[in-house]
Description:
By secondary structure, the chain is α+β, with helices and mostly antiparallel strands. The protein is 20% helix and 29% strand. It has three helices and five strands; from the N terminus they run βαββββαα. β3 and β4 form a beta hairpin. The longest helix is centred in the first third of the chain and has 20 residues, at 38-57. The radius of gyration is 18 Å and the shape is globular.
Amino acid sequence: MTDIKNVDEVPAEKPRGMLMLRTLTMPADANPNGDVFGGWLMSQLDAAGAMMAYELCRGKVVTVAVDEIVFRNPVHVGDVVCVYCRVIHVGNTSLKIQLQMWTKHNDEARTSRVKVTECGITYVAVDDNGVKRHLPRELVEHKDELILNGYESMYSGNSQYECY
Ligand SMILES: CC(C)(COP(=O)(O)OP(=O)(O)OC[C@H]1O[C@@H](n2cnc3c(N)ncnc32)[C@H](O)[C@@H]1OP(=O)(O)O)[C@@H](O)C(=O)NCCC(=O)NCCS
């Protein structure tokens, strides 16, 4: 018998990438309307991506570019904010991380997960003087695997990378 699926059924989207940041929003993070301030949310995105970039670049990085950020849903005080990251490009001195921000609303069971925004951020590896430097050789050598299989793929065998 053929399994006929309803064409209107769209599979629910799930967070994509590694969970790099998870935090509880506080009254101090609110805008004058009482929802969470967009600038605070943007800084959480940058911090989450930077944590991944620091580890992969094995040292200092700076943020050079942020793609368009569109907030699709508000975040309320008391919601849990989660940021998921995955590397989508590895260059010579820079890498680009795709970030998704999701919230769990402050309902009884925190079961209603909502996607807030998604954007790409590019980080450049720099030396102690803030001058760009080449990405670590191991990172460049494993870039295809990293992009295809995710951050955890760096933590195998004799890799110099260690999982958090
Ligand atoms: C980032 C910085 C070190 C780049 O120095 P630079 O010598 O001008 O470097 P380049 O223009 O050659 O760019 C370096 C890399 O960034 C990438 N890059 C530069 N501008 C970019 C942009 N608008 N979008 C995406 N990538 C960009 C380049 O493609 C290059 O990548 P690659 O080496 O992997 O190919 C320098 O511009 C800087 O210090 N900026 C300030 C950073 C900062 O203070 N950020 C905020 C706080 S962290």
